[in-house]
Every structure is written in structure tokens, then in C-alpha cells.
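Long-time lurker, first post. I've been practising inverse folding by hand and with some scripts of my own, and I keep getting stuck on stretches where the C-alpha cells seem ambiguous. Below is the full C-alpha cell string for one chain I'm working on. Before anyone asks, I'm not after the true native sequence, just a reasonable design that respects the backbone. If someone could post their per-position residues I'd love to compare against what I wrote down in my notebook.
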């Protein structure tokens, strides 16, 4: 009965008072400790009291916002970062550790080593990004990683990449929407879906290097 009452109370404070999930987790852990060690009641498992994890979809940029974003960026590195996130759907950690040797410009491929699930895979490199890469390379001259920090031959950390995305959003007037690198990844998939591409094809897209490059960039013809 104790556990049922606690769950009822948690639902009450969450729904009526708008208490966040983290505070509910704190209460659940404290209640579990109290009943187990102080009150000596039958064990209450805190994990069973946690409110169900909320799933929130990331904010998605419209195609017009993507155009405005890319046109407003002046920094070659930042422009390439944004272009790769949106044009490939690459993850943050994957972009940080992308080595020059894994970029196959001839075949328009990028090799992702030890990505999600510690698996290697190939993804398409949009043709229109090649001039952006060349401009960036002439400007920054990376040695090993495509994006290197202040110390040559070492990768940019994730925070620096995120800062670059935030600055680009701010410069383009999109900062108020809370867009992130994660938003760019999901915008990439959403815009493919909007064009009529099958969801199962999109899910397997990183391995389909023969897929038409133009499908990656719905804004390409507008620029």
C-alpha cells in the first residue's frame, strides 16, 4: 500500500504542481531510503517510483531557415560544420573525430569509424560541400582531423563544435528557437521524409552511398 500511495503522490505533484522529472526522481530515491532504512517497512524500489521518462522531439528547422542559416555564416569552419550536420545527418561525436583520411572526395563518401554501436559505416558526402571543404582547408590547414582544436593534430572537443553551432544560430537570428546540432540532424531526416522518401530508406541511408546526392539537400537549388 505504501508504494501505491507514493506513486499517487508523485503523480499528483507532477501533474498538479508541474514538478519536473528530476525532482520526482529525487523524491523517489529519498522515499525509498526512508522506508528501507528508517521506517523499516518492506523495501520500496525507487526505480519503480520514477515517473515515466518524457520523450520530446527536437526542434526542427524549416527549409527556409536552413537557407537563411547557411547564407548568414561567414566563418568557413562554421559553415562547413553546419553543412555536414545537415547534409549528412552525422552525430556530434562522429563529426568531432572525423579524420581527413576518411573523406573520399572522389567517390563522395565519408567513412564513420566506431560510430553508434561501435560500428563502422559509410555515408554520402554531398557534392556541393566539396567547395566548402576546399575553402575551409585553405583557411585552416588541418593535419589529421577535419576539425582540430588549438593544438594541431588533436580533434575539436564537442563543446567547441556546439559553440560554433550556437554562434551560427545567433548570427542568423535563429538563436531564440533553441536549435542545436541535434536539430540539424533531425531536420536532415525530416526534410527527406517531406520530399516523399520512404522512412525505412532514410533509416538505412548512411549505408546507401549510391543514393542521389540531391536528395540530401532540398535547399540546394534555391541557393
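-- Answer (accepted) --
I ran through it position by position. Result:
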Amino acid at each position: 500500500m505504501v508504494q501505491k500511495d507514493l506513486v499517487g503522490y508523485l503523480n499528483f505533484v507532477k501533474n498538479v504542481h508541474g514538478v519536473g522529472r528530476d525532482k520526482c526522481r529525487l523524491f523517489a530515491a529519498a522515499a525509498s531510503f526512508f522506508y528501507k532504512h528508517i521506517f523499516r517497512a518492506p523495501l520500496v524500489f525507487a526505480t519503480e517510483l520514477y515517473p515515466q521518462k518524457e520523450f520530446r522531439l527536437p526542434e526542427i528547422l524549416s527549409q527556409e531557415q536552413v537557407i537563411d542559416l547557411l547564407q548568414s555564416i561567414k566563418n568557413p569552419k562554421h559553415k562547413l560544420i553546419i553543412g555536414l550536420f545537415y547534409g549528412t545527418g552525422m552525430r556530434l561525436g562522429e563529426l568531432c573525430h572525423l579524420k581527413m583520411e576518411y573523406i573520399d572526395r572522389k567517390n563522395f563518401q565519408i567513412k564513420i569509424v566506431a560510430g553508434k554501436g561501435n560500428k563502422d559505416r559509410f555515408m554520402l558526402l554531398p557534392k556541393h560541400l566539396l567547395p566548402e571543404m576546399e575553402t575551409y582547408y585553405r583557411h585552416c590547414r588541418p593535419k589529421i582531423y577535419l576539425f582540430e582544436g588549438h593544438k594541431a593534430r588533436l580533434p575539436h572537443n564537442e563543446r567547441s563544435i556546439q559553440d560554433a553551432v550556437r554562434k551560427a544560430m545567433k548570427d542568423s537570428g535563429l538563436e531564440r528557437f533553441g536549435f542545436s546540432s541535434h536539430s540539424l540532424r533531425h531536420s536532415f531526416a525530416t526534410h527527406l521524409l517531406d520530399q516523399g522518401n520512404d522512412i525505412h530508406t532514410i533509416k538505412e541511408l548512411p549505408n546507401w552511398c549510391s543514393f542521389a546526392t540531391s536528395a540530401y539537400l532540398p535547399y540546394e537549388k534555391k541557393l
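A couple of notes from the structure itself: The beta strands are 103-104, 109-112, 121-124. The two ends are 64 Å apart (CA to CA). Happy to go over any region you disagree with.
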